[in-house]
Each structure stands twice: as C-alpha cells, then as structure tokens.
Write a structure and sequence with these properties.
Elements: H1 2-26, E1 30-34, E2 40-44, H2 48-70, H3 75-91, H4 97-100, H5 102-111, H6 122-153, H7 169-181, H8 203-214, H9 220-235, H10 238-251, H11 257-266, E3 278-281, H12 292-311, E4 319-320, E5 324-325, E6 337-340, E7 347-350, E8 358-363, E9 366-371, E10 373-376, E11 379-382, H13 385-401, H14 419-429, H15 433-443, E12 448-451, H16 459-467, E13 480-484, E14 490-494, H17 501-516, E15 549-550, H18 557-575, E16 577-584, H19 589-594, H20 599-614, E17 622-627, E18 636-640, H21 644-654, H22 660-682, H23 688-707, H24 717-723, E19 729-733, E20 758-760, E21 768-774, E22 780-787, H25 795-819
Length: 820
C-alpha cells in the first residue's frame, strides 16, 4: 500500500540519516549504525594513516615545546652538553672532581635513593647522572639567559627616540644585548615566554590623561563635572579596583586578553556583519590572472603554505628593527577557527586536532567540501595548485548546472544575524542529522572560499561585496574568508574577535605576494603552474577520485522562515551602510616626511580638520587603533587623536588671521603630541584599556560584595561616564610592508601591485569609520563608512572634506616656502 511504502521510505531515510551521522563519527574511529528494524551497532575502527599523522604531530609538538622551553639554547646544544659531560665523567679518574667532588657526591646521594639503581652497572649510573647533570646545567643556563632577556625587554626607552635621532650609547648597548641573547633564527613562538606582561598603568596618570583628551570636547561646565567624578573615584574605590587588577596581572600572562575577547566581542548580541567584521582588498591596479578558478586555487595553496609555516613554527617572528620581538599569539587562530554563537555569549573555537585539512567553498549558494590533501603516487600530500584549480572549475560547473534550492542558498544569512537569534536557530535546526554534519564541515574548515557569480563594477562595489555581499552568502563566523570574482579579482573578509587586523593583513600580504612569485603558468595563460603540463600530473590523481563533496541540508518550513527573517534583517543593515573609497594622489607620505611631520599624525590631523568642517564646527572623540604586541598576548590600545594640541591646530587652520608659519607650528605641536600618545599606547601606558579593566574589575568586585550580602555599592560613575562616550570618529591605519624581501611598493616593478587596504563599519550611530593606508610614497587610500539613517553623516562628503584638508595642509607649507 501507499502507506506502507511511505513508512518504508521514511525508515530508509532515517537509516540514511543515521549513516550520515555515523560518517562524521567515523572520523573519530567510531561508527554507530542504525538498521531499519530499530537496532544499533557500534563499530570501532583503526585508521593507520590518521594514527600515524597524529603520532607525528604529537612528537613534533613535544619537540617544539622542548625547543621553546630551552630557547635561546637549542636541543643540539643540550645534546652536546650532555654528551660532553658523560664523556668527561666516564674518562675521569675515580678521585677526580668530576666523580668525587661535592656535586658528584650530591648526585650519588640522590641516586642512592632509588633501590633499583644499585642493580645497574656503574658505567650506566655514571652515564645517567651525567646526562641528568648536563640537562640541569642547560636548563639553568637557559633560565638565566631567558630571565635576562625578559628583563631587558621590559625597557622601551628606545621608543622615545625622535625620528632621525641617534641612539645613545646606553640604547645601543641595550640593542646589542637583546640581539646577542636572542639566538640565531628564532622560530615563530620562541619569544612568547620572554615577552613582558602588559603593565597596569598608574591610576592618577590614566585619569589625568583621560581628562586632557576630553577637554576640547566638553563645555567648561561638563568638564568641571567630569573632573569632580574623577576626583571622587580616585578618593573612594579606585585603589581597590587597581589592586584587583594588579593581582590579576600577577596571576595571568595578560590581564586583558580574555576580558577583551569576551566583553568587547563575544558578549555583544548585535550582528557581526558590518558592525565587527572587516575587509581587505587585493591589488587595485594589477591583476595576476582573469581566471576565477586559477586565482582561487593559488590563494588557497598559498594560504595553506602559510598555515603550515605557522603550525610548524617556521614563520619568522615580527621584530621591530629586526631586534625587538612582538607577540605572535594571534597567528595560532587565523585558520581552523570559527566563532560559535551562544544565547548570551559566543565562543571562539579553534580546531587543531584534525590533520585532514579541507576548505568550505560556496558557489551560487551551494556549499562544497574541498580537501586540501590528496593521496598521490608517493602517499598523502598537499594538493598542487593545478589540482585545486581542476576541482574548483568542477565546482563552478556543478553550481551552474545545479543551483542551490531557495532557502539552502541563504543558510549563511544566519551568521550575519543577531547573535542570540542565530544561537536559537542553530540549536533548533542544526543540532542533528545532515544539517549538523554540513555545519560541522563549514566550521571545521581551514577557511571559507566564496566563488562570486558576478564581477564588481568598481572598488566601492568590490569592498561591499567582500564586506557583506548579499547578506546571505558570506559565512561571517569564519575567522577568514577568501572572496574571488569571475574576473580574477579577490579580497578577504575577517571575523574580529580572535585577532586584530595587523595579523590578518600580514597573512594576506604574504599570500598575495607569494602568488606573484611563480604561482601561475609561464605561458601567460593565467592558469596555475602545472595546468595542462603532462610532466606535472600525478598518475594516480584525477578529478574522479578527488572531486569535492557537495553539502546537503534538510530545512523544514519553519527553518526556511527563520532564514528568510535573517535575510530581511541583514538587507536592512546593508542598505543602511554608506561606504565610500577615496584615492588621494596629490602627494603622499614622502612629502609629509620632508615636512618633518609623522605621516600617521599628518593624516589624523587632516581628519580632525575635516570633521570640524563636516559637522559644522563640532569636534569628535577619535579612536585610532594601536597594537600592544610588545607584550605577551598583546591586542590593541586606543590612541586618542583628539587632544588640546590637535584642537589648536584645527582652530589655527580655520582662523583667517593665523599665519601659515603659526599653522605649521601648530601642526608640528599636534603631531608631536599625537606621536607621544601613540608611543604611550604601544608601551602599555594608554588610557582606554586601563579604564576598561577597572570597569570590569568593578563588576567582579561588586559581584563578590553581593555574594556576601554586603550593602556597599561601588563608585563607578566616572568609569561609566568615560566608557559610554561614543567614538564619533573611529580610525585605523591599514598596515603594509610586513613581508620584507617578498616585495616592496617603493620599487618600480612593485608600485602597481599595491593594495588600497580595507575597511570596517562605523562604531557610532552618527559617526564615521575611517580606514586609511599609505600605499607608497605618493598615494593614500581612505575607506569611509557611515550610516545612511543618520542625518549628520555622509561618507562621500566626509571623504571630500578629508581631501580638501590634505590639500589645505600642503598649501601652508608651499606658501611658507615661497615667503621664505
């Protein structure tokens, strides 16, 4: 009957679903099968390849841990010292110091505590004790060397040197000592154990600095009230919170790291699309190829190489002036990482236990699993670029023939939605069956690759397609996603919680510079190396045995309704974004340096002048991101670009009675102040992270008081007032030239290969987000974002004001030069 047939079909589908779940479990060498009669069977399997890979990784991980423990000494030195000690002891007379001295007697006494030792030959005991003594000696020397190096790295006086100023003999000696104690060719994480901890700045210093930064922003009455709040805070509860913070700094590598990730990023419930994630573009005047599959394959291949270098600690650590190390902790989670939504707080999950690497690919709404390894004629190895290109070409063809069904093509919209609603949908529709398996493939992927179905019309369109797309294709939870267009152009979108832009930009620069160094066929066809080259083909590898797997979804009507709600809400957020990109080529940092003004400070002062013109005379509380990676587990600190000096410069520029000489002096004073603030931020003496730490400490402290039923209430009025002030102007300089030796934008052959940088969304409802980049000596790029719903902002208008401010600032130098 029809009913019986339907029942049998349902049972078969249930069994098939169980087998799909089992496929995922079998990766862990356990398989659970459900038969049609309702019984279950459990099968334990042994995967020799997996076991071998895990064993190799475990041994190598142990070796790296040992190397990082004894560094700057090496395992070779350790082995050599142990061998030399054993040889010397074994060849010495019994009455010599090596066998009967105070140290030898102490070791003999310790050795006698083990009863089985008396059963061993004397030579064996001597060898064992010699190795033990040599190990103690090596670890002792390493501890002393590392302690001295850590003490030296606490000094940051070299940061106070003016541009062009010669260092003193003391600073030169400091540089020499650091370099001498750092060993040769340090590995990626060698310095992690010797970097100093982020300091807790003095309380009064932080409050005084804060008041100076808001003085130009507040009226006299409001400023006097803020001073009273600060004084009351210092008198009452500040010392308790400072003590709480210092205690935390003594017990942790970084008092800020986990708090910053949790309370700034993961607790937030707003969509991370536009509000948190950011984008980076590729070269704007140069294309390596116009083949989409070839470009995507080369990017994935280079990204896989970069990931392997990080995993195997072969990536050179970032060092200031090739001497002072910076923290590399953030590099661990660039790949194999995803943000998982929670009802109240998200989590960042890093999948590091699976040696099988794959990439999640989306094309026309259809999702695929693309393996990055293949079983070739010489065993399992990473895929070659031409093999990846063949698979990606197949994906493009398959997605065109069999487009995703409505709803299935919009699953990714959930990741751009409100975080709590996404967590609820995940729990309801993706906790079992084929949906759980497909979601697991995406979340455990090395990265996500988006094969776009149309080419951008200009840089703004390209920026929008990378930043948010159509709101239903990009997987916003993934640590990094590569977006490749049909014309071969590309870009990167990154989730922000696990790492900062400096780290991701370094990876992107390494990948894009690497593809230009021989990633494509020499015949000029635009295909990858090895494409249509018989000599490059592996005889046992073909598209048939390495074809990507298309992911499946089982979405009931309720799930489709929820997904559609996410699409609608995402569309509203996208439509509200006003994004503009400006190229400024009248002059660049070359002129700024000749004018004896820091290029970064020059650009920041231009934005201060532009904002006052744009807003009709108002000033903006301004955020500029700076890194604190001179410290272990360093993240960022705020440089407050609005200062008394920057306000004076803006006023001088707008004062028709001011002379150009006065304006130039005001600019240099403002730039000097800005540079000092930037150096304070880099060296752990900023304002905002300390205020943030005090505020979080107040909440913990109050929770303790409440637990013991105390009626005491913490005084946090000053902290609340300080932290709730909106960042009307949020800015960041996009870094470049982090891959020395691979390319140089100042060279003629590399000048057209520059990237215009990237951007992010506005922080305040009525404010601007501005990302800028000094592409080379002559060109700047500005990415300006704001909200269309705000009557106070207009991104194109503000970009025009920035351009005019830069031109006016050039004029005062030209005019002063003519008068001279």
């Amino acid at each position: 009957s029809v009913h019986a047939h339907t029942q049998q079909q349902a049972m078969a589908e249930a069994a098939a679903g169980a087998r799909l779940d089992a496929a995922l479990l079998s990766v862990r060498d356990v398989m659970i099968l459900a038969s049609e009669d309702g019984t279950y069977s459990i099968t334990f399997s042994f995967n020799p390849w997996r076991f071998r890979k895990q064993l190799i990784r475990s041994i190598f991980s142990l070796r790296l841990t040992l190397e990082n423990t004894v560094w700057p000494l090496t395992p070779g030195i350790w082995g050599g010292v142990c061998a030399a000690t054993a040889l010397k002891v074994l060849t010495s007379r019994k009455d010599s110091w090596w066998r009967s001295g105070w140290l030898a007697n102490a070791l003999w006494s310790w050795d006698s505590c083990f009863p089985w030792q008396n059963l061993l030959p004397t030579e064996v005991r001597l060898t064992w004790l010699s190795i033990f003594a040599g190990t103690l000696g090596v670890f002792g020397m390493s501890f002393i060397q590392r302690s001295i190096l850590k003490l030296l790295l606490q000094y940051n006086g070299y940061m106070r040197l003016e541009h062009g100023q010669k260092p003193s003999s003391y600073v030169k000696a400091w540089f020499w000592l650091v370099k001498a104690l750092s060993g040769r060719k340090p590995a990626t994480y060698n310095f992690q154990g010797v970097l100093p901890s982020l300091p807790v700045p003095p309380l009064r210093q932080t409050c005084e600095k804060y008041l100076l930064t808001v003085k130009p922003l507040l009226s006299e009455k409001d400023f006097a009230e803020m001073e009273k709040k600060a004084a009351r805070f210092l008198e009452k509860d500040a010392w308790k919170l400072q003590l709480f913070l210092k205690a935390r700094s003594w017990l942790r590598t970084s008092w800020l790291w986990s708090w910053w990730e949790k309370y700034v990023y993961l607790v937030g419930r707003d969509p991370i699309m536009i509000n948190s994630n950011y984008y980076v573009l590729d070269s704007c005047w140069f294309s390596v190829t116009n083949h989409q599959a070839a470009r995507a394959a080369t990017l994935l291949y280079q990204a896989h190489l970069f990931k392997r270098m990080v995993d195997w600690q072969q990536l050179d650590p970032i060092m200031i002036q090739k001497v002072v190390p910076m923290c590399m902790k953030q590099y661990e989670r660039i790949f194999d990482t995803t943000r998982v939504p929670g009802l109240e707080c998200d989590t960042v999950v890093h999948y590091m236990d699976d040696p099988q690497r794959h990439v999640a690919v989306v094309c026309r709404g259809a999702w695929y699993k693309l393996n990055m390894t293949v079983k070739g004629s010489k065993g399992i190895r990473p895929c070659h670029p031409h093999e990846l290109e063949a698979q990606l070409s197949w994906i493009l063809e398959d997605a065109a023939r069999n487009p995703a069904r409505p709803g299935e093509d919009s699953v990714a919209a959930l990741t751009g939605w409100n975080r709590t609603r996404w967590a609820e949908a995940r729990k309801q529709f993706f906790r079992a069956g084929v949906n759980k398996q497909s979601l697991g493939v995406i979340e455990r992927a090395m990265t996500v690759l988006v094969l776009a179905d149309r080419a951008p019309t200009d840089l703004v369109d390209q920026s929008r397609m990378i930043m948010h797309g159509d709101g239903k294709t990009l997987w916003f939870d993934k640590s990094v996603s590569f977006i490749v267009f049909p014309n071969g152009k590309a870009g990167l979108m990154a989730e922000h919680s696990y790492a900062d832009a400096l780290t991701v930009a370094h990876m992107w620069e390494w990948v894009t510079s690497g593809e230009r160094l021989g990633g494509y066929a020499a015949d000029g066809s635009g295909h990858t190396v090895g494409w249509n080259d018989p000599a490059a083909q592996d005889p046992v590898v073909s598209l048939a045995n390495q074809r990507p797997t298309r992911l499946q979804w089982d979405l009931p009507g309720k799930a489709l309704e929820v997904i559609q709600c996410a699409v609608v809400d995402n569309r509203k957020l996208i439509d509200d974004l006003d994004l503009h990109l400006m190229e400024f080529s009248a002059y660049g940092k070359g002129f700024m340096k000749k004018a004896r003004v820091s290029p970064d400070a020059f650009a920041q002062m231009a934005m201060q002048l532009a904002y006052k013109r744009d807003s009709g005379g108002k000033r903006a509380l301004t955020y500029e991101a700076s890194v604190t990676r001179l410290f272990a587990q360093g993240r960022t600190e705020t440089v407050r670009a609005l200062s008394v000096e920057s306000a004076a410069f803006v006023d001088a520029m707008l004062d028709p009675k001011a002379s150009d000489a006065d304006r130039i002096q005001a600019l240099r004073d403002a730039a000097e102040k800005h540079t000092a603030l930037y150096k304070d931020a880099m060296t752990g003496n900023g304002v905002d992270r300390h205020l943030f730490g005090l505020y979080v400490s107040s909440k913990y402290y109050q929770a303790i008081l409440d637990f013991f039923k105390s009626t005491y209430v913490m005084e946090d009025g000053f902290l609340m007032s300080a932290l709730k002030m909106p960042w009307t102007l949020s800015t960041s300089q996009t870094p470049q030239k982090q891959t020395e030796g691979r390319w140089n934008p100042e060279r003629a052959e590399d000048a057209r290969k520059i990237s215009p940088g990237g951007g992010f969304g506005p922080v305040a409802e009525d404010g601007y987000g501005v990302s800028y980049q000094f592409a080379n000596e002559e060109v700047l790029f500005f990415h300006v974002s704001s909200k269309r719903s705000s009557a106070a902002t207009d991104s194109k208008r503000f970009a025009a004001h920035i351009e005019q401010a830069l031109l006016d600032m050039r004029k005062i130098f030209d005019s002063a030069g003519k008068k001279a």
